[in-house]
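As a warm-up, study this chain.
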Amino acid sequence: MAHDHHDPHDPHDPHHTGHGHRHGTDIDWNAMGPLLESQAELFTAVYERAMAWLAQEVTGPGLIVDAGSGPGVVACLFAEAFPGARVVAVDSTAPLLERARARAARLGLADRFDTVAGELPEALGELDHPADLLWASRSLHHLGDQRAALAAFGERLAVGGTLALLEGGLPSRFLPRDIGIGRPGLQARLDALEAEWFARMRAGLPDSVAETEDWPALLTAAGLKYTRTRTFLLDLPAPADDRVRAYVAEHLSRVRGGVADALDADDRATLDRLLDPSDPASVHVRPDVFLLGAYTVHTAVRPA
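Now compare it with the structure written out below.
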């Protein structure tokens, strides 16, 4: 969330708007907050469809926990989608939790909105009550031992409570295969480089354990009863509006910075043109920019 999960600067991923994982301290989260909020808002349709589906899975949740909430966009959407629920946003980054509380206040949700500061999964131990619904959107893959983290998530569920895990899906697409400059297939090559980056990121995490990413099997191994998987499509076709263009430019800029050394000269030159606002081929003005992605949610229940 990110999000594509292959984003070289994954903390900025709108599907991982949470930063409940351990991260570097060189990021100015006060400055990043507005960008994280605007990007998450762009994906509101995905979250709303996921919540409508979860409403069929979960009956009247009393407590909803967003594990890795970031600035609270999704947590507030949960509060709106489930008006009888109390919502707790859990994150390690205080400035983002401040934005979450401010957002809840602006929306008139403050009376049933709380925050907990701390690293995942340990911070979940600070909850006053077990969760009826625990949402983890691309925060799990920033934890070295995902199997142990899933077990910890499950332990913080009420009996009969649901864990909703957003992991996987497909990398987003922004441009046609042939964009008229450079070699065709740029995004496919970037995907491959980003996948390599993601593997290195996972391997470098504290206590990293390699796992087959069979999420239903991992949920079952964590002692939960796997229920269902559903994928939600975000389809914002060309011509893109300014929000989509800004998101695409930001994404490609981070990719350019994250995998630049692995790009050949032709692809670097193409990315530079795509990012140059004065270039008629840039994503800021070209007519064929779009945003298309698929985001997968897996659910499981804590048995009696």
